[in-house]
Design goal:
The structure is a single chain. The chain is mainly β and about 110 residues long. It has one domain (about 5-114). About 0% of the residues lie in helices and about 55% in strands. It is built from no helices and 8 strands. The chain has strands at about 10-15, 20-25, 30-35, 45-50, 65-75, 75-90, 90-100, 110-114. The N and C termini lie close together (about 10 Å).
Length: about 110
């Protein structure tokens, strides 16, 4: 399941974990979605930055939900930047996740219905 699952939903709450390891989205119809990284071994994936006002996502239907990313290699392994753009009629929010590993583990962000 991808972030597009939020399209058309009206959010009632968005909770960003203090350690920036997950975000929980609650919808008007009682559904909950979670964005996080399923930790395996030798990798790290965290929310690096929230650009925009999370409150713009609450109370109006999600009209835009896009994912993009970029990967690369470094001396010690690999990295992945994953970007999410969410928008309502009130405004947009960009979420920037950064993952790094020794090159053998996933650096992706998981998104699922809870």
């Amino acid at each position: 399941m991808g972030i597009e699952a939020l399209l058309g939903h009206t959010l009632t709450n968005v909770f960003v974990d203090g350690d920036r390891e997950f975000i929980k989205f609650e919808t008007l119809d009682g559904s909950e979605f979670k964005m996080y990284h399923r930790q395996d071994c030798c990798e790290s994936v965290t929310l690096e930055e929230v650009i925009g006002d999370i409150q713009d996502l609450i109370g109006s239907p999600i009209l835009e939900a896009e994912e993009s990313g970029e990967t690369g290699e470094e001396d010690y392994g690999s990295y992945t930047w994953t970007f999410y753009k969410l928008g309502t009629i009130k405004g947009h929010v960009n979420l920037r996740w950064f993952g790094s590993s020794n090159g053998y583990y996933s650096e992706s962000v998981d998104f699922e219905k809870v």
